[in-house]
Design goal:
By secondary structure, the protein is α/β, with parallel strands linked by helices. The protein folds into three domains: about 170 residues, 3-Layer(aba) Sandwich (Rossmann fold); about 250 residues, N-(1-d-carboxylethyl)-l-norvaline Dehydrogenase, domain 2 (Orthogonal Bundle); about 30 residues, Single alpha-helices involved in coiled-coils or other helix-helix interfaces (Up-down Bundle), CATH 1.20.5. The protein contains 19 helices and ten strands. The strands form two sheets. An eight-stranded mixed sheet has the order 3-2-1-4-5-6-7-10, sandwiched between helices. The protein has a two-stranded antiparallel ribbon with strand order 8-9. Strand 4, helix 4 and strand 5 form a beta-alpha-beta unit. Helix 11 packs antiparallel against helix 12, helix 12 runs antiparallel to helix 18 and helix 15 packs antiparallel against helix 16. It is globular. Bound molecules: 6-phosphogluconic acid (6PG). The site of 6-phosphogluconic acid has 13 residues, from helix 8 and helix 11.
């Protein structure tokens, strides 16, 4: 007797793949699984966790395909890039018209657009799907950002809605638009994630080096903030992290961790995309740059001895409340930049992204889940064409209240020589965005001076050129 056909398949039993497969099976959907190395498939299918669940392991790709009900649907959880293309190439000859491949990895959205077109031309279906939430989210409820044809998304809608995180009885899974839309939104999520993490790291540095707080005090501050407007997963885990002691040395755990951050590239992609669509996302860019600077450990150690901060006073006048306000306001700016970048890309690609839905499905499961996403949902409900989150009435008020503390913090950091690239770039973004007149008039004059690029005037329409050398 052969096994009954599985409703869905999953290829790639890494940590995310295994947890997603368990989550799907746990919700009663029979699942077939396959991994390039059969030993891993065997170990997983025979594991304690998979026991009793409708999980069938396959050693061969052919038997995996044969084990799926038609038209087939299968999720790829393999490494983004070449490995994904290789897996798709191996699958295509085994598939039939209408079979559906769902890429659940962190693919670049241009790859997703290319794969969607290539597979559609073969009569196959494709969804580029961002899955956020790490290991824990994959197992217990991730946030799922689906891109591709609406009818293809419809086919797997019950599975994704069932396995996603649920907030206020609403699943954190949605079809967001065609081709690359899902992976674009996931990439921008990661860009915001980088900014959010960097802002928190800078705040920690200020707590230590400006306020002189010890670890219990820092942990208590983050735990307290988690109960207020800053309530979010990243603030919560930061409080946990700051409370952890290294068993070997007895020191706070973060004190023994090398200050050299890694990155897999999605934050950089988000910045490249924002630049491509002319969307200013400086805080996200600073967060990516900060990881790059952190990686220059040896150079920094060398420079530390040569470049003193200068003789600046210790009188800073910064309170813990001011730090909280700075973090909150800067965080709003990072989200505003991410949403504005998504709006620019949506227009360029005709994705028709619904920002209220995006904010809603980020409220649970994903790394940047936060209480204030409710406010973003409200902002887009009140005005779906809102040009920027900063001008929504709730955020106008929040920024007005946070502004004095934020400015004091950035000023104190500058005077003390504590690097706060994300907090300060967010403030510069805020000040630029709220400036009715910027010094770009001078840029235009310079461009016209050296390149005859022309300029517009404030007092009459048209384009003008000045012969700047003529007296
Ligand atoms: C998630 C995360 C996850 C990962 C990112 C960033 O949403 O679950 O974003 O996808 O953390 O890829 O990783 P790096 O910090 O290594 O670039």
């Amino acid at each position: 007797m052969s096994e009954p056909a599985a409703e869905i398949g999953l290829i790639g039993l890494g940590v995310m793949g295994q947890n997603l497969a368990l989550n799907i099976a746990d919700h009663g959907f029979p699942i077939a699984v396959y991994n390039r190395t059969p030993a891993r498939t065997d170990a997983f299918a025979g594991s304690e966790e998979a026991r009793g669940l409708p999980v069938t392991g396959h050693a061969e790709l052919g038997s995996f395909i044969a084990g799926l009900s038609r038209p087939r649907a299968m999720i790829l959880m393999v490494k983004a890039g070449e490995a994904t293309d290789q897996q798709i190439d191996a699958l295509v000859p085994l598939l039939e018209a209408d079979d559906l491949i769902i890429d659940g990895g962190n693919a670049h959205y241009y790859d997703t657009i290319r794969r969607d077109a290539a597979l559609s031309a073969k009569g196959l279906r494709f969804l580029g799907t961002g899955v956020s939430g790490g290991e824990e989210g994959a197992r217990n409820g991730p946030s799922i950002m689906i891109g591709g044809a609406a009818d293809a998304a419809q086919r797997v809608d019950p599975i994704f809605k069932a396995i996603a995180a649920q907030v206020d009885s609403r699943p954190c899974a949605a079809h967001l638009g065609p081709d690359g839309a899902g992976h674009f939104v996931k990439m921008m999520h990661n860009g915001i994630e980088y900014a959010d993490m960097q802002l928190i790291a800078e705040t920690y540095a200020l707590m230590q080096h400006v306020l002189g707080l010890d670890y219990p005090a820092m942990q208590a501050a983050f735990a307290e903030w988690h109960r207020g407007d800053l309530d979010s997963y990243l603030i919560e885990i930061t409080a946990d992290i700051l409370g952890k002691t290294d068993a070997e040395t007895g020191l706070p755990m973060v004190e023994v961790i090398l200050d050299r951050a890694g990155q897999k590239g999605t934050g950089g992609w988000a910045v490249q995309a924002a630049i491509e669509y002319g969307a200013p996302a400086a805080t996200i860019a600073e967060a990516v740059a900060a990881r790059g600077l952190s990686a220059l450990k040896a150079e920094r150690e060398h420079a530390a001895a040569k470049l003193p901060a200068g003789g600046v006073g210790r009188d800073h006048g910064v309170s813990l409340e001011a730090l909280r306000d700075a973090l909150l306001a800067a965080k709003v700016c990072a989200y505003a930049q991410g949403f504005a970048a998504m709006a620019a890309a949506s227009e360029a690609h005709h994705w028709d992204l619904d920002f209220g839905t995006i904010a809603a499905i980020w409220r649970g499961g994903c790394i940047i889940r936060a209480r204030f996403l409710d406010r973003i949902v409200d902002a887009y409900a009140a005005d779906p064409k809102l040009p920027n989150l900063l001008v929504d009435p709730y955020f106008v008020d929040l920024l007005a209240k946070a502004q004095p503390g934020w400015r004091a913090v950035v000023a104190a950091a500058a005077m003390r020589g504590v690097p706060v690239p994300a907090l300060s770039s967010a403030l510069a973004y805020f000040d630029s965005y709220r400036s009715a007149r910027l010094p770009a008039n001078l840029l235009q004059a310079q461009r016209d001076y050296f390149g005859a690029h022309t300029y517009e005037r404030v007092d009459k329409p048209g384009t003008f050129h000045t012969d700047w050398a003529k007296l």
